[in-house]
Amino acid sequence: MAKMWAGRFKKEVDSKVNDFNSSISFDGRMYRHDILGSIAHATMLGKTGIIDPAESEKIIAGLTGILQDLESGALAMDMEAEDIHMFIEAELTRRLGDTGKRLHTARSRNDQVALDVRLYLRDEVKEISALVKTLAETLCGMAAEHTETIMPGYTHLQRAQPITFGHHLMAYANMLLRDLGRLSDAAGRMNENPLGSGALAGTTYPIDRELTTSLLSFDRPTQNSLDGVSDRDFCIELASAISIIMMHLSRFSEEIILWSSWEFKFIELDDAYATGSSIMPQKKNPDVAELCRGKAGRVLGDLVTLVSMMKSLPLAYNKDMQEDKEAIFDAVDTVKLCLSTFIPMLKTARVLKENMRAAAAKGFINATDCADYLVKKGMPFRDAYKITGALVGLCVDTGKTLETLPLSEYQKLSGLFDGDVYDAIKLETCAMTRSSLGGPAKESVERQISWMREQLKAY
Ligand code: ARG
């Protein structure tokens, strides 16, 4: 097919260059947004009298027909086309003749593509946010069931202090709440209309940018035409918000992988969300979590692609920017895929409370509480710390735990110890008396859950 811009050229473009240049294989997915953008543009051209209103109507009807035909499958995308914008305009002209050729008045593909990507991503952000919200709600629901499920809390992956599974889950809910905030910030800044920036220098036609802005439900038009066509901050900002979501999902996945190992056995994944091995019959692998962890790297790669693609570009549009789409679309697709698989995997996992409780009992994670017991009886913390250290050493040497060490042994190290020490170092006591704001005590976690549910209503 002859190029729309063939007039200036004496030769056909080399077929390799044609393929190299073409983006329809990946920008074809924006067909709906391209058509909606063109309908708004055509409406504006008619309303302002830049083209005859009757022709504007015909263009709108023609575009609507193309949209229907693409959706029904009656019209197939021409993979030989340079991009989705050229394809739709060519199809319109095929259907309407000269009228179709008027659509691109006072517009460039540069403002057109900037518009389409914004429109497309605006819809995607809504879907991503809905999934992140669902995951946060799922965590609130699970946490509410596990406000008394004792587990070891870790630092350095060493058992540290007793917490509850509910408390642990709510840590992730807080990360996701911040993710929702970041998505909403990105969506807000993205919601500006670049249409009317033209190729780079606006236009001499009396266009009405406020009209297309309101027709397309943007908050405002972009304020500088050079920036309007050459800004891809909105892709980068979204990719970074998505990268952070993926990083959170990856940390969570890492824990799920550890928890489902025989060494931990804190949870058991449902058969529907695990896979077997082709050679080892005993295996049940946490592939979903592993893939989420792996794909976090891939999405981070998308972010790096975008930032490095943009970092040296002079103003305004450069063809390099066509590379934005595969990266941001991949980030968007990947995060949606991961979230929508991760959520049911988490929901269906069996929580093995007894194993969590048993692991919490083995690592002297009540040692801080033992020292605090002495402090509450008047001993300075550093002395109490030393004595407790000696007790732990004794337990290790004699194969005991602080719970099973006889009172006589305690009393050899300090006369302040009494029979009530066993109550003070009970794991349940240790977790449930940590009722400081944000802590693991039942009421504290319940407060965290209701606060979270309240915050989530904003999204
Ligand atoms: N396919 C191009 C892109 O994705 C559309 C813009 C082309 N503009 C141009 N001046 N060649 O960026």
Mean pLDDT: 96
* Percentage of residues assigned to helices: 55-70%
Q: Beta-sheet strand percentage?
A: under 5%
Major sheet summary line: 2 strands, antiparallel
Rg over CA atoms, rounded to whole Å, is 31 Å
Give the helices and strands as they follow along the chain: HHHHHHEEHEHEHHEHHEHHHHHHH
Distinct ligands: arginine
Q: How many strand elements?
A: 6
User: What strand line-up does the widest sheet have?
Assistant: 1-2
Estimated structural class: mainly alpha
Q: What is the molecular shape?
A: elongated
The low-confidence runs, each spanning 5 or more residues with pLDDT under 50, are: none
User: How many DSSP helices?
Assistant: 19
Separation, N- and C-terminal Cα atoms: 47 Å
Overview of this structure, please?
There is one protein chain. With 459 residues, the chain is mainly alpha-helical. It has helices at 15-21, 24-27, 31-47, 53-72, 84-96, 109-145, 165-190, 209-215, 225-230, 233-259, 287-310, 324-348, 353-362, 367-376, 381-398, 407-413, 421-424, 427-432, 442-456; strands spanning 150-155, 158-164, 192-193, 220-221, 267-268, 350-351. The chain has a two-stranded antiparallel sheet with strand order 1-2. It is elongated. The model has no long low-confidence stretch (mean pLDDT 96). Residues 23, 27, 83, 109-110, 113, 317, 319, 321-322 line the site of arginine.
